[in-house]
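Annex B. Sample input.
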Amino acid sequence: MTIAMNAEEVLAPPVDAATVMVLRDSPSGLEVLLVRRHGDSGVLGGAHVFPGGKLDADDLLQDPSMLERSAQACQTALGEDGLAASAALGLHVAALRETFEECGLLLGVPPGAAQAQAQAVRERTAAGEPFGTALQALGLPVDTTCVRPWSRWITPRKPAMMNKRFDTRFFVTAAPGGQVVEHCEREATEAVWDSPRHWLERYWAREVEMAPPQIMSLCHLAGMRDVAEVLNTARGERPPLIQPESFVQDGERVLCYPGDPAHSVTQRAWPGPTRVFMRNHRFEPDGGLAAFLGM
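Annex B, continued. Sample output.
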């Protein structure tokens, strides 16, 4: 994973994208799914990320009769001023599609024959059929109700870890029953379930690499008991807009977030640290792992 410490300011507008934190309850508590990108990937190569990717043109083209809720309802759920209803629907569809493409989970279908349905969709999309069209052909709904907006991250104008900028909507969803996770071999090398706390511990032990949006989202999830609490939180709150602001302090690059004294937004977006420092070739908060874990 390349960290662009001295990247030139990027003036191109960020690309719309969607990512999904897939959650499940286990005997030891809440778990979240991450996939590890191939090392030669153009975006965060080698890092562990939530399934996700950019908005495709086909995501915007959906048959209204196959939708479980309207484009206007998707627009309301995201709560973004100036966002067109068609774009809001497309971002929800992108979340469904990327989850399917990157880890094989078909969201929003009844559990009975889900594995067979997933295989049927996989065969159609492999032949070049758009995801939404494949669902329609198989009589399956485009169920945007099963993914709930969680946050919105916009890459800084001077990216720290890549040369592209994204305007990414983070969603949360419960893992569907009766399906098996299968990572996309073209884009990833593994898909792994673990608790938010253990993911952060693994990052601190240098067992995995992650970018700040994943790290800080895991910090938030680490304080949640189970899937129900996460989904209830998502239902009751407007997704916060997170635009990291960077500066250099005592020779160190700093990323700060809403609620930090140096950030232009005074209201916090989550519990835990409001800034991280580029130290030891990675992002670290003052207080180390304990700060990530809210200790």
